[in-house]
Structures are given as C-alpha cells and as structure tokens.
Amino acid sequence: MALNASTTVPFGLPDVAAVLVNEDFVRHVSELVGGSLQEFTVEGDTSSVFTATIVRTVPTTRLPEIARKVVGESLTVTQKEAWTAPQADGSRQADIQVSIAGAPVSATAVQKLVPVDGQTRIDVDGEVTSSIPFLGGKIAGAAEPMVGKALNLQAQQVQSWLESR
C-alpha cells in the first residue's frame, strides 16, 4: 500500500532536522503514543551523512482486531534512517526502513526535508507491505493509515517541541 504524507513546520530546516534525531524528542514521541524507547543510536556526524537507528515498543490497541490477534499487545518496531548530507539549498533526505518484530509488516519510505520561505516542508513517500499470502494486502492496508498518522503526529510534535524551546 502506498504511503504519502506532507506537512509544513514553521521552523527552519536545520532546527527541524536536529529535532528529528534528538533522543529526548524520539523518547517523547514514543511515550506520547503509549510506547517506550528501547534503543537510539546515531552513527556519523548529523551535519553530514549519518544513520540513525530507533527501536521502540508500541501498543497495538489502535490496530484492527485481526492484527492484534496475530501480534499481541505490543510491537517492537525498528526504524533505520540513512540521512544524506545537506544539499546546496539545505534540503535533506532520509531513506527509512521500518521492521516490526514478530509481525509480517514492513515499510520503506523516503523522507525529504525541504526549506520553504524560512519554514520546512516534510514529505514522506513510501510503501507498507505484508508477507502473509492472501491477507497481506488487507494487513498492509490497515497498517498504512496508522503509519501516515504516526508521521503526521511526529511533524506536529516537532513544531510543539521547537515552540517550547
């Protein structure tokens, strides 16, 4: 299932990019949805090319009943982000891979941070897939809106986080 989301945050790109790879921020967002941050690592200099790995547990209370029966009360989600160095205009891109332990669902996406008149547009394009024969499309279809909501929540929280600083 295709995944597309776009939102604009009224802060400059360097500030937005810094928040997205701030361990305290990632912990805050994880806890906001009832989960917890298990691991957070950054390899490389965040002002250039780097990778971030985020492992969190999240509750399954918002998943469809069919999915909860398969995966249980919580999921361990691993998100790997491979960030490019800033381009001449300051824009950045992260190739994201999401895997879920014990669940046949994964996602890949490209997240772009684009400067727009002193603000930052966050664009995410990707795909949610499931490896279960016959039911895979239904499971991916059910997961796709949840992933989109998570990305929108993250963008809203970036704005709130920066406003509170």
Please give the structural blueprint:
Layout: E1 2-9, H1 13-20, H2 23-32, E2 36-44, E3 50-59, H3 65-71, E4 74-83, E5 92-101, E6 105-116, E7 119-130, H4 136-163
Antiparallel strand pairs: 1-7, 2-3, 3-4, 4-5, 5-6, 6-7
Helix pairs in contact: 1-4
Task: Give structural notes.
With 165 residues, the protein is α+β, with helices and mostly antiparallel strands. The chain has helices spanning 13-20, 23-32, 65-71, 136-163; strands at 2-9, 36-44, 50-59, 74-83, 92-101, 105-116, 119-130. It has a seven-stranded antiparallel beta sheet with strand order 1-7-6-5-4-3-2. β2 and β3 form a beta hairpin. The chain is globular and about 45 Å long.
What are the key terms here?
alpha+beta, single chain, seven-stranded antiparallel sheet
Indicate the proportion of strand residues: 35-45%
Structural class: alpha+beta
Count of DSSP H/I helices = 4
Q: Which spans have pLDDT < 50 for at least 5 consecutive residues?
A: none
Q: On the 0-100 scale, what is the average pLDDT?
A: 87
Sheet with the most strands, sense and barrel status: 7 strands, antiparallel
Strand/helix succession: EHHEEHEEEEH
Number of strands: 7
Work out the radius of gyration: 16 Å
Helix content: 25-40%
Measured distance between first and last alpha carbons: 37 Å
Please state how the strands of the largest beta sheet are arranged side by side: 1-7-6-5-4-3-2
Shape: globular
